[in-house]
Amino acid sequence: MAAPKYLTGDKAGIDEFLDRFEVFLFDCDGVLWSGDHLFPRIPETIDMLRKKGKQLVFVTNNSTKSRADYKKKFDKMGISAKEEEVFGSSYSAAIYISRILRLPAPKNKVFVLGETGVEQELQSENVPYIGGTDPSYRREVENSDYTSIADESALDPDVGIVLAGLDFHPSYLKYSLAMAYLRRGAKFLATNIDSTLPNAGSLFPGAGATTAPLILASGQEPLALGKPSQAMMDAIEGKFQFDRSKACMIGDRLNTDIQFGIEGKLGGTLCVLTGVSKKEEFLAEGVAVVPGAYVDQLGDLLR
Amino acid sequence: MAAPKYLTGDKAGIDEFLDRFEVFLFDCDGVLWSGDHLFPRIPETIDMLRKKGKQLVFVTNNSTKSRADYKKKFDKMGISAKEEEVFGSSYSAAIYISRILRLPAPKNKVFVLGETGVEQELQSENVPYIGGTDPSYRREVENSDYTSIADESALDPDVGIVLAGLDFHPSYLKYSLAMAYLRRGAKFLATNIDSTLPNAGSLFPGAGATTAPLILASGQEPLALGKPSQAMMDAIEGKFQFDRSKACMIGDRLNTDIQFGIEGKLGGTLCVLTGVSKKEEFLAEGVAVVPGAYVDQLGDLLR
């Protein structure tokens, strides 16, 4: 495998790199911003790429926000973007459920572990759901719950899918219900299984922390519909219609973003060092996932 | 490995089995009861063993209850037991922290994920702690929390240990704080890592579901102090002083109870079929953990 090309400060290298691609897929957290902190020269870099006629797609594993929520975040950050350019893991999961899994109604109801982003995207695809942000699932488990969950009288007869995204409001009741649905035969899906969530320059538990208790307790593994799942790449290509050899994935995580681009046989991958992965992780000998190029920060593409 | 002996209905076999041992270590959930459901003839079976002069120890991985709580449960169930005969995973963890780990004060403070059982046993060993059942940790995470956790201003400078038991009140704030303590270098301990909790004839998420998000997010594995950890066996032997060859472990789980007895080189192990493990799991060819004997239910020992 060729060594990744270091592009920061390399004007000719950057020109050559940008000229190779017509489409750039961007991860957001760790690339454009970290939480509410915008990285330097991001709006200008995005504008530069638009002026060069590049097609931009913002591909995020953040399941807590819908595409509409993300558009608001771009506006707040002063980055030009259209809602249609955003492709999130909640949207990816909703599309998978409505267009690929296609369980016959009414047995297509989803038990959601997660936030409003998951709910909005399920609504946009007319997928029925329960759980999610409903505060009634945040109460304590009572003794009678054990009985009514064990005998299934507390279960919705129509739930055929458990979908887990990052849940900021975990509860033992939700986990107990989700486990019971899985034991009854529900399909187990995850928006994504990122182990960590970068924020404020540190790392917090990611969406994988929501699924981890269920994986252990049920003995079942979810189908993850965020990066690096190629189900997400297929859905993106289906929507945006591009030549993969002319597309480049830009991200901060080797085991999600860069792997996603490599397995998707994109023309290139670019790693930024403003997020999770450190350059030592891909510059070492014999490592599994190596980006085509890297920069210290995305704004370094701007000369 | 010899095939396990089936003792239900085998009067001579039961007599011979009971005569071999002076000490019986009992798992509780799945052996004596399931949740609030007492299995048949349990009080009479316990009384029979006491009349034969056997020493009884109740060894439980349930971290939510202290030894005093357990004594109350035995009383409610009508089973004769002394508080000193109970040995729980919370007590095991408290002893490990106070008598083996012995971090110098004040850096021996524990951040607790779990219920009152953990707190009571830490108190009994004079170990300082925060977290646990304190309701202030159940609130939502605010944006300012990300900053104050990332810059460590929200962290207690004295916390040197994260101890996780089964937590019926999980919160993203607790997980974020626990992860930050682990990243700062805290020791990671678990009362136990049972994947499931039997109740009402079904299975619910166990204490392992509390640690699973932290293991994934931090990349660190806890030292588990419940069964099958031999740290617990050593502590039990140290307290009760018995000849391991004359001791028998009775339990319903191959990968906790029976493994605990085998690895502890006890004279025997007895599996009951009223809990998690099914006989097919140990009667199959080439399986790793096989009990010395088994009965359909503990009450079958009573003729």
Automatic annotation (TrEMBL), chains A, B:
Write down the EC number: 3.1.3.41
Asked if Hydrolase is a keyword of the record, the answer is: yes
Q: Gene behind this chain?
A: PHO13_2
Q: Kindly state which keywords UniProt assigns to this record, in alphabetical order.
A: Hydrolase
- What is this protein called in UniProt? p-nitrophenyl phosphatase
